[in-house]
Amino acid sequence: MKISCHCGNVVIDVDKPTEVTQCNCSICSRYMSLWGYYPPNEPLITIGADGIDSYSWGDKELEFMRCASCGCVTHYETIPELEKQKTAINFGLAREKVADVPIRYFNGAEEL
Ligand SMILES: [Zn+2]
Questions:
Q1: Ligand 1 center–CA 110 separation, angstroms
Q2: How far is the CA of 50 from the centre of ligand 1 (A)?
Q3: Distances (CA, A) of 19 to 16, 43, 53, 66
Q4: Cα of 69 to ligand 1 centre, how many Å?
Q5: In this structure, are residues 29 and 48 in contact, taking their beta carbons and an 8 Å threshold?
Q6: Which of 22, 26, 58, 108 could crosslink 112 through cysteines, CB 3.0-4.6 Å?
Q7: Where are the alpha helices (DSSP H) in the chain?
């Protein structure tokens, strides 16, 4: 399936997730993100001429990416130093396309 940020600068081609994760940690609750997790490089992420910005916080093991034009949070990536690598795609960009996918609620506020 293909999903994109609001302006279309970032396009992600990815298999439909079997579940999405809604997390209540300090960052995810603000982003209102619905994460689907993939091995790195599996989702095909195409970044247009407007580029992306990123944000890291805390232990800085994750880089949250957002479109530099419209500001939508599109995905996050683990930093290269981390042993377990993953890419998380924000299906909050396309809620209607994952309306039939179960939501896993993760208590990141307490467990992270
Ligand atoms: Zn955009």
A1: 32
A2: 8
A3: 9, 16, 27, 22
A4: 5
A5: no
A6: 108
A7: 28-31, 108-111
CATH number at 61 reads: 2.170.150.70
Domain that holds residue 20: 2-111
CB contact set of 89 (below 8 Å; sequence gap of 6+)? 3, 12, 14, 17, 35, 36, 37, 38, 43, 74, 75
SS3 110: helix
CA of 28 to the centre of ligand 1 (A): 19
Name the residue with tokens 């996050």. 76
What span, in angstroms and rounded, lies between the C-alpha atoms of 44 and 35?
Answer: 16
Q: What is the pLDDT of residues 42-62, one digit of tens each?
A: 999 999 999 999 999 888 999
**pLDDT tens by residue, 52-95:** 999 998 889 999 999 999 999 999 999 999 999 999 999 999 99
